[in-house]
Amino acid sequence: MVAFDPQLLWNGVVVGSLIALAALGLTLLFGLLNFINIAYGEYLAWGAYIALGAKWADVPFILAIVLGAIGAGLIAVITDRIVFKQFSDRDPVVLLVVSIGVAFMLRNLIRVVYGGSTHFYNVGGEAPVVFGIRVLPAQVIIVTLSIVILAIVFLILNETRIGIAMRAASDDTDLARIRGIDTKRLVIYVSLIGGVIAGIAGVMLGIDSNINPTMGFLFLIPIFAAVILGGIGDPVGAVVGGYALGIGQNLSIIFIPSEYTPAFALLILIIGLLTRPSGLFGEATR
Questions:
Q1: Which of 13, 73, 127, 129 has its CA 20 to 30 A from that of 138?
Q2: Does residue 118 register a pLDDT over 60?
């Protein structure tokens, strides 16, 4: 057992910021498309690699992040128009299987374009100690960028016509269509927004660790755990679930060896399904 260290709490907030942002994008996609898109992990990876390519071309890092986000958003829209749209009237399980195939294709395309090596953004800078906590510049970027993007997305969802239409269609697609909402066009908007969020989350993940072709796929378990913990299709729940999972995963080091912490997300996923299948804000099972 390890004594409590405030560094663990800060590291948990950083990881939670990553998971919360990625989970928000996935739950928005599920809310309208009604299937778990396994290729979402590859949207993250492509966002990270596009930003890396821009950085190699000496593009300022802030602009590289924007290019990575836009690139991932366009990939999400293109895959939806070319592939998922053709199966939109099929069972969600069929779409799930199709998304696995799309994920393999996108992952191998990364290897073709960028190779299979591991890369780093190398975000340098001094790491000051604040209240006994070592704060890396990369961590400040991750937490700040996550909060800004989360605020923008929730502002869109609550204060814009597109956001209100997205929420209405997520609650009841048929009723939204009857009320005159163009759900087909809305799918494009949601795919773009979800892909952009994934791209930014991918860059943040690359800043926190490294960039490799399987980075998005391996990050899917904590993302799914956060989405299910918060309630599938619930944006607020996904964010809360993401932060809870990130903080809980890091604090679990106090009780269990650090090599077992990756299994924490899977454990939370199982417990969440057994006790609160409707999410944190849903009704608990007895």
A1: 73
A2: yes
Tell me the C-alpha distance between 44 and 41, whole Å. Answer: 5
Per the CB < 8 A criterion, the answer to whether 76 and 137 are in contact is no
User: Cβ distance 41 to 243 under 8 Å?
Assistant: no
- Collapsing DSSP to helix, strand or coil, 134 comes out as strand
Give the C-alpha separation, 216 to 43, whole Å. 7
**Amino acid (1-letter code) at residue 194:** G
Mind giving me the DSSP string for 146-205?
HHHHHHHHHHHHHHSHHHHHHHHHHH-HHHHHHTT--HHHHHHHHHHHHHHHHHHHHHHH
Q: Could you tell me if 11 and 250 are in contact, meaning their C-beta atoms sit under 8 angstroms apart?
A: yes
Q: 269-284 burial, b for 16+ CB within 10 Å, e for fewer?
A: beebeeebeebbeeee
Reported residue count of the chain is 286
Collapsing DSSP states into helix, strand and coil, what is residue 128? coil
* 8 Å CB contact between 120 and 209: no
Higher pLDDT, 39 or 87: 39
pLDDT over 50 at 48, yes or no: yes
Domains and CATH numbers, the chain: 6-275 (1.10.3470)
Q: Which residue has the higher pLDDT, 21 or 285?
A: 21
Q: Which is nearest to 65 in space by CA: 223, 193, 198? A: 198
Backbone phi and psi for residue 261, each to the nearest 5 degrees, phi listed first: -65, -35
- Phi then psi for residue 88, to 5 deg, are -65, -25
